[in-house]
Amino acid sequence: MKNNINEIREYWDNRAKEHISDLQGTTNDVYLRELEIKTIEDKIRALGLSAGASLIDVGCGDGYSTRRLAKAFPEFNFTGVDYSDSMIANACKQRDEDAELKGNVEFKVANVLDLADALGGAKFDVAITMRVLINLPELSQQQTAIRDIANICAHDGHYIAVENFMDGQSNMNELREGLGLPEIPVRWHNRFFEKDDFRKAADGAFKSLEFIDFASSYYYVTRVVYSKLCQIQGTEPLYDHDLYRVAMDLPYQGEFSPIRMVVMEK
Ligand SMILES: C[S@@+](CC[C@H](N)C(=O)[O-])C[C@H]1O[C@@H](n2cnc3c(N)ncnc32)[C@H](O)[C@@H]1O
Q1: pLDDT-above-90 percentage for the chain
Q2: Spatial CA neighbour of 20 closest among 93, 121, 84
Q3: Which of 63, 70, 58, 151 is nearest to 104 (CA)?
Q4: Whose CA is nearest to atom 10 of ligand 1?
Q5: Which domains, ranges and CATH numbers included, belong to the chain?
Q6: Using an 8 Å Cβ cutoff, are 220 and 126 in contact?
Q7: Does the beta carbon of 59 sit less than 6 angstroms from any atom of ligand 1?
Q8: Cβ atoms of 115 and 151 closer than 8 Å
Q9: 98 C-alpha to center of ligand 1: Å?
Q10: How many Cβ atoms are within 10 Å of 60's Cβ, its own excluded?
Q11: pTM score above 0.90
Q12: What is the mean pLDDT of residues 54-73?
């Protein structure tokens, strides 16, 4: 049966209600999110934006990543949007309780498929998605979302996408199979991209596009080496095992991660 966007939104709404103020509202793999945030921070720094620049975190969930970026760059203005009103309620609550923030973050309920209207035509210097477009059940919706995000980017603005791809998932699963480990399936609410589909959707909307396999070593260590170790020892993998922390600091090699960063310039 095909997944429906409302069922997927309900999944995220329920997750928000179960995790009002802990760190796992949007993912169990919190070290992966740290690696994503660090890689995005490095990219934003490299863009050399001027003070007052505007950045939008599309599909911000409970706003954890938005708040982290807003603290790292207090000279920029951040907007976080998500279609789950429970996620946005958590985001506002956690922002209001966070004494380190300098008043540079706002949150709004908005669907990535309705951004221009929801944002009243506002344009942003940088748009970011972190594992968001993979929650759209149809390729046509994912393609529309990429173009709609291009439309909210300012002239010469950037879109930094951290999304999942089938070829990286297959590479990782091939390594697992070689070691006698079971395949990791794509979860019911996700649709991973083919690299070419992403490229085609971005073509014309952006003048340049770069794929970065920043999580390859991370996946190699956590989903292959550590999984094998757990199999040998007869234990269940734990997301807070020290190896996750070590994996986060490794330089990246190969294409063994479903997750990639795609940096696009308008
Ligand atoms: C995997 S979570 C990631 C959240 C956040 N970016 C992070 O990395 O912590 C995906 C988020 O995307 C949101 N989302 C999924 N589809 C969306 C859509 N069509 N419009 C807006 N938000 C969406 C979900 O509600 C959820 O909060």
Answers
A1: 94
A2: 93
A3: 70
A4: 132
A5: 5-166+187-217+260-265 (3.40.50.150)
A6: no
A7: yes
A8: yes
A9: 21
A10: 30
A11: yes
A12: 97
